[in-house]
Design a protein that fits this description.
Number of domains: 2
Distance between the termini: 12 Å
Bound molecules: zinc ion
Helix content: 25-40%
CATH superfamily of the largest domain: Zn peptidases
CATH class of the largest domain: Alpha Beta
Shape: elongated
Number of strands: 19
CATH architecture of the largest domain: 3-Layer(aba) Sandwich
Structural class: alpha+beta
Largest sheet: 9 strands, mixed
Strand content: 15-25%
């Protein structure tokens, strides 16, 4: 496992906080430009491989060219903007995506790309040459809302896109295939079909994805920045059912009922007790029954419910925890089935692996935040990000979260530019400290 390769190897230079401070005004200007160019019903829309994303890529590219960065795109039309350092490899990468969900917020994704540009612009203005090349990557098509597939751009960059996806995956709004969309923006679907890669994990020293937080953790902790320790993996039963028997509410004694509502209530309570116990033991976990329904064609206020359909979403940073919760879930369900005389059919199972952030990068970012006097608690990340693709390829990876109100994937997401500046200050100073080379 790639741990501890970079951070802490070289002491941080005391004056670095002021020297080459991030160009936050650049980010403010580009955020305003993005909002003006991609505004939609109070929010913004930047469809994956659509006009909004194209606008964002053109805006960012123009800025990079005027900064004098080396700019190129790959077969998927991901955009790379490089500032040369004292040594080329292994280079540092800062990146995130520029697409959005329909009528989303202006900061989800874009904050990571603009922070990368703010950092390198800060170095350029102060004449600071970073120890290693720094490439800011604007990633295509991260949001699954458009193609019902995640991480298209980052997977394509590593040659990990399944060739069948180029034909089989179509965009939800226009029905055109991913391959057609890639070609339309000047990409090279044939190269993607041949799984040609533009990035080589062995040549990337580290990847950092700055991103707005999409939950309330940092607001509750009163901290501007969070340092992510891992992206949670999951297991899910999207179409589970508890099956009992419909019966007359007044005529059926408790001991003869097969009440699916009472059984599912016991399951939810039992899962929450399990969650509390594991959390008290220091384990990372979320358990959510987000959908629960009796059948309107069959149910009635005077009937014992014979069936409840429900969903279950369990997430953790730990594979072991996910495995233990699955075992406990099925055991709990078997006990409840016996007690309530019902059956559980959990239906299909889908799962994803947790992505662990590099321990050395986490420690380095945390140490830098502390040196700068910025509150930056460690935290888990509950949603998927491109960083997971990099981390699962063994690239030392980190994520910086920026405090954000009102969640994300909606027009009301609200990031304070001062919080963005705090995260950028950490990132800027951390990149200057990364002198050690990857063994
Ligand atoms: Zn995002």
């Amino acid at each position: 496992m790639p741990t501890g390769r970079l951070a802490g190897a070289v002491p941080l230079r005391p004056p670095a906080a002021a020297l080459g401070a991030p160009d936050v005004a650049l980010a403010e200007r580009l955020f305003a430009g993005l909002r003006a160019g991609t505004g939609d019903r109070g929010g913004i829309t930047r469809a994956s491989y659509g006009p909004g994303e194209a606008f964002a890529h053109a805006l960012v590219r123009q800025e990079a060219l005027s900064l004098g960065l080396e700019v190129h795109t790959d077969a998927a039309s991901n955009l790379y903007m490089t500032l040369r350092g004292r040594t080329a490899e292994p280079g540092l990468m800062i990146g995130s995506h520029l697409d959005s969900v329909p009528c989303g917020g202006n900061f989800d994704g874009a904050a990571g790309v603009l922070m990368g540009l703010s950092v390198v612009s800060g170095y350029l203005r102060a004449g600071v040459v970073p120890p290693r090349d720094i490439t800011v990557m604007a990633i295509r098509a991260e949001e699954s809302a458009w193609f019902n597939a995640s991480y298209i751009g980052s997977r394509a960059a590593f040659g990990l896109l399944d060739p069948s996806e180029l034909d089989a995956v179509v965009r939800s709004d226009d029905g055109r295939s991913l391959g057609e969309h890639v070609r339309a923006v000047g990409g090279d679907p044939a190269a993607l079909r041949a799984r040609s890669a533009s990035l080589d994990p062995a040549r990337i020293g580290l990847f950092i994805e700055p991103h707005i937080e999409q939950g309330p953790f940092l607001i509750a902790r009163d901290a501007p920045v969070g340092i992510v320790t891992g992206i949670r993996g999951s297991f899910r039963h999207r179409r589970a059912a508890c099956i009992g028997a419909y019966a007359h509410s007044g005529a059926t004694p408790r001991t003869l009922r097969q009440d699916a509502v009472s059984a599912i209530a016991a399951l939810v309570v039992g899962l929450n007790e399990l969650w509390r116990r594991l959390e008290d033991a220091g384990e990372d976990l979320t358990v959510t029954v987000g959908q629960i329904a009796t059948d309107p064609a069959e149910h009635a206020f005077s009937k014992v419910a014979g069936r409840v359909d429900f969903s279950l979403d369990v997430r953790s940073q730990s594979d072991d925890t996910l495995r233990d919760v699955r075992t406990s879930l099925y055991r709990l369900a078997a006990d409840i089935a016996a007690e309530y005389r019902v059956g559980f059919d959990f239906g299909p199972l889908t799962d994803s692996r947790p992505a662990v952030m590099d321990a050395g990068v986490v420690a380095g970012l945390a140490g830098t935040a502390q040196a700068l006097g910025i509150a930056a608690p460690l935290m888990a990340c509950g949603a998927g990000h491109d960083a997971a693709v990099f981390a699962n390829l063994g690239i030392p990876t980190g994520m910086l979260f920026i405090r954000n109100q009102n969640g994300s994937h909606n027009p009301d997401e609200a990031m304070d530019i001062a919080d963005f500046a705090a995260a950028a200050a950490i990132l800027s100073r951390f990149c200057l400290s990364c002198e050690g080379s990857r063994p």
